[in-house]
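TL;DR need structure tokens for one chain.
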Amino acid sequence: MPFFNRKSHRAPWSGPHRRAARSTPLCDNETVRFLPSSLATSLFANVLVTLTLATAGCHAQAPSATGAQLTPAEQHRVEVLLRSKANLPPQSSVHLGPRQPSDIPGFDTISVSFSAEGKDSKPANFLLSKDGKTLAQFSKYDLSADPRTLISDDGRPSRGGPASAPVIIVGFDDLECPYCARLHESIFPALTQRYGDKVHIVYKDFPIDQHPWAMRAAVDVNCLAAQSPTGYWNLVDYIHAHASEIGEDPKDPKADKTLDRANQQLDKLTKDQGQFQKADMPKLEACLTKQDTAAIEASRKVGESLNIDSTPTLFINGEKLEGAVDVSFLFGQIDDALRAEGVQPPPPYVNPMPPGTPLSTAKPDTKPTAK
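>> reply
TL;DR here they are.
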């Protein structure tokens, strides 16, 4: 049956492919829809917002009872201030929790939530001074972890240098995504040519639900990856370069593409590359027949835990970049990551394309090969 002989509803320059809406959204904004962004989850809004409930000045702060409920006067002052700052609906309710210990001298933590129209917000923590005269909110982040290790490469097939390279690049990829193909074309072999063994590059799987054969392609390339990392990359290169042809009838290019034909073509491409790499063919064919998606689903869950909802998405030493970004911008981010690791980057990159040339018009001089 026909399955994807249709035009995308997104313009080709409009951005990365995103996952379709699901019954359980990745980020539940519905429960806080009546809250202003300043009290929702905006990073910069919550870094340091100090709300003073009394006249400015230095005051001795008396100790407060931890775990104690706020006094009626404190509750009233906090609620009046939050309503004025958050511009809450008139019939909303403000819920304040008891004082709890905090890491900030002179302050306790209180939990604040809102309800309106039968919906409840997620609790947000605020700091209330011991004397009850200052309310503050800020976010605390742990910077002790090495950003390079924030996302594991999990022994994935790699390009470039070893896992100990100063820059680790992890890409979440969908083999049917045209934006992924566009980015892939622009970075290989450009990344390895420019940085050599200073970068370690791996792909993780994040097939988008609305791409019919993306899951099949992910399973197939991983079946080959188990035996041949080189074969894996050869196959990834080829599928990205020829994705628009997969599912076509070679005898009738005008015929509708079909999912069955796409699956057969992907399996054949994998077997052909397996034979070229002298893989254990019975083992490879058994893997292709089984079509076990467990590892792909696990990779998707990792992506979801990182708030990924579109492809392509790259992490450069932990820094997230979404979409088919221009290669010159990408090189700038990698250069910065190298400097952060105390490594001198190569000379400044000069884009060989004329200014204003769309990235999608850049074509490689040769067909993709293993790097």
